[in-house]
Design a protein that fits this description.
The chain is built from 8 helices and 34 strands. The longest helix is centred in the middle third of the chain and has 87 residues. The strands form 9 sheets. A 5-stranded mixed β-sheet has the order 21-27-26-23-24, with no helix packed on it. Helix content is 28%, strand content 31%. A hairpin with a 4-residue loop joins strand 5 and strand 6. By secondary structure, the chain is an alpha+beta fold. Bound molecules: adenosine-5'-diphosphate.
């Protein structure tokens, strides 16, 4: 039994099973073994014993003379590629494959030449550990950077890595073997791989992918351990198929990972949140997907990774996500709000209508009451007015007769007894006569006043004719005062001729009567046409009226002067007002005291009256 030691060289257990022959490294003996760190002892088909060493290259044991031939690396000539030699493998042709720290050597005993294969030829690493041949004649070489399959015909290497399912990229020396059924075993720093070389090339390794973490606002979501605990996760996220979240959890992330410890450069992920994302998001090596402020609704989060062939794996991990709306966006709340709102509007409407109706009722009642009161008052007033007019008429009419008698007899007395009685009697008679005449004038005025409007029908009245007739009637006064009357061409109106004449006459007579001392009175009658009515103006150059009296003078018996200054009864202007109002018009005065007054009155035109 040959025994290799690490540091103590080679040992041969002798046939007695008790003693050993030592083959130790002796620097002074060139035929001793080249190094004491034995890595491997290999016997080829010809029975040659090859000893690989860690630092002393390869040794061939010569049984005849009990010494060693050394194969050491030499830069200057064709030699083994490294002095750190691991395992050997003999192919059918008898050539030896030698795994070394610095490349794979193929040694041809016949020609004594080494052919070296390194990463430059396609090996994944120069440090080669072990080599096996499969049933199809292909070689499988383990290295510290994965396993390589060598096709001796095409002289090409196909390399396999962690991403293909290897325990790790790093394999160990001496840890490899092939079973009788052809299954291969390679051991490394993280366990070992077993595979059937026939099926390797066709299987695409699809590393499993899982969702590993779920976060809300960058905080890991805990799993609810009992029913009272509020958490969207009832079990581990990896086992969860549906998550329900309130819309207030507006920032959340999924973390995912491929359970393949492939080199990071071979990992790649893509995820999609349907129907929010329109296409897959390729996140590269990034293993997290974050979403913010999603609308309430149902979503599906899907993630996939690259398989070992660099294609997107058809194995997609998905999780359903339900985002519940806030209570004010739920259909029942909207419905309730709508109902409440419409109810409120209806209630307000009904209430308002009821209130308005009540108010209307009350108002109507008040209006009815007031109307009744008004009608009653009006009737009362009309009656009283009629009674009053009747009284005024009757009184003045009946007074006329005795007054006429009195005046007649006073006149008679004056004619027959003037100068025959004493002076006093003459004076008293004159007073009685004067007072009786004034009373007659007053009674006449009162009669005229109470007669106004007794004739119902309007007739055509030519104002020019009226003014001419007035002028004739007051000729004496005109002559006496020297007054002049100028008049525009006046219109024909509809009205009561007698009343209109009284109106003009009163205004003209007042204009002459209230003249300034030492001033010849001038009266100007003009007319303007306004919308639907005529506006007349009777202007004088008399004494004028203080502003504060301008309204009051139209009331009956209102006088601004005593009789010694100006004669009058105080009925004239109230008479005028009554006449104008009978013709549906207005009367007013504008005056500058000391300069004159203008009396205005309006009478509707014939169209409006008709
Ligand atoms: P009477 O002329 O009989 O006094 P009226 O009713 O005609 O009564 O007039 C009332 C008062 O209005 C008059 O007393 C007078 O003071 C004032 N008045 C009327 N017309 C004029 C006028 N043209 N100029 C100044 N004062 C006037």
């Amino acid at each position: 039994i040959w025994i290799g030691t690490y540091g103590g060289g080679l040992e041969l257990m002798n046939a007695d099973g008790k003693t050993f022959t030592h083959y130790t490294y002796n620097p002074s003996d060139p035929n001793s073994i080249s190094n004491g760190n034995i890595q491997n002892i290999f016997e080829d088909r010809e029975g040659n014993l090859w000893i690989s060493t860690d630092g002393g290259g390869l040794n061939l044991f010569n049984k005849k003379n009990n010494n060693f031939t050394h194969y050491l690396h030499d830069d200057t000539k064709n030699s083994i590629s490294s002095d750190n030699v691991y395992s050997l493998f003999e192919e059918k042709t008898g050539k030896l494959w030698i795994c070394s720290r610095n490349g794979l050597n193929l040694y041809d005993k016949k020609t004594n030449r080494f052919t070296v294969f390194t990463v430059n030829d396609g090996l994944p690493a120069n440090l080669t550990m072990g080599m096996l041949e499969d049933d199809k004649g292909r070689y499988w070489i383990s290295t510290n950077k994965g396993i390589s399959r060598f096709n001796p015909y095409s002289k090409t290497f196909t390399n396999y890595k962690v991403s293909d399912g290897l325990q790790s990229d790093e394999f160990k020396e001496k840890a490899f073997c092939k079973s009788r059924t052809g299954i291969m075993y390679f051991g490394g720093i993280n366990g070992f791989n077993q595979f059937n070389p026939d099926s390797i090339s066709t299987i695409a390794f699809d590393p499993p992918l899982v969702i590993t973490n779920f976060q809300i606002f960058n905080k890991k979501v805990p799993i609810a351990t009992n029913e009272n605990q509020q958490s969207p996760l009832k079990k581990s996220i990896t086992e969860t198929s549906t998550i329900t979240l309130p819309s207030s959890s507006s920032v959340f992330s999924f973390e995912f990972a491929s359970l393949n410890y492939a080199s990071p450069d071979k990992k790649k992920y893509a995820y999609i949140l349907e129907p929010f994302d329109k296409e897959w998001n390729e996140s590269g090596k990034e293993r997290m997907a974050t979403y913010t402020h999603l609308d309430p609704g149902e979503y599906t989060f899907k993630v996939r990774g690259l398989n070992n062939q660099g294609k997107w794996s058809p194995n997609i991990v998905s999780i359903k996500l339900i985002i519940t709306p806030p209570f004010y966006l739920t259909w029942w709340f909207k419905m309730l709000a709508l109902l409440l709102f419409s109810g409120l509007i209806i209630a307000v409407y009904i209430n308002r209508t009821r209130r308005i109706k009540n108010q209307q009722k009350i108002l109507q009642q008040q209006v009815d009451e007031k109307t009744i009161q008004l009608v009653l008052a009006n009737n009362n007033l009309t009656m009283k007015n009629k009674e009053l007019e009747q009284f005024a008429y009757v009184a003045s009419h009946d007074l006329q007769e005795p007054l006429r008698t009195t005046i007649g007899f006073v006149d008679l007395l004056q004619q027959q007894y003037k100068g025959k009685l004493d002076d006093k009697a003459d004076k008293y008679l004159a007073f009685i006569s004067d007072a009786s005449n004034r009373m007659r004038a007053l009674i006449k005025d009162l009669l005229d006043f109470s007669r106004i409007g007794t004739k119902k029908e309007f007739e055509k009245v030519n104002c020019n004719e009226i003014v001419s007739s007035v002028k004739e009637d007051i000729m004496a006064a005109l002559k006496e005062t020297g007054a002049s009357i100028q008049s525009d061409t006046l219109p024909v109106i509809y009205g009561h001729g007698t009343e209109v004449k009284i109106l003009f006459q009163n205004l003209i007579l007042n204009a002459i009567k209230f003249r300034k001392k030492n001033t010849v009175p001038q009266v100007i009658i003009s007319v303007t046409k306004a919308n639907h009515y005529w506006q007349f103006a009777v202007k004088d150059n008399g004494i004028g009226i203080e502003k504060q009296y301008c309204e009051r003078i139209f009331d009956i018996f209102q006088r601004l002067h005593n009789r010694s200054e100006y004669e009058g009864s105080g009925i004239g202007l109230s008479h005028c007002k009554k006449i104008v109002e009978l013709h549906y018009g207005k009367i007013w005065v504008e005056s500058v005291p000391g300069e004159g007054s203008t009396f205005y009155f309006t009478i509707p035109d014939s169209r409006s009256v008709s």
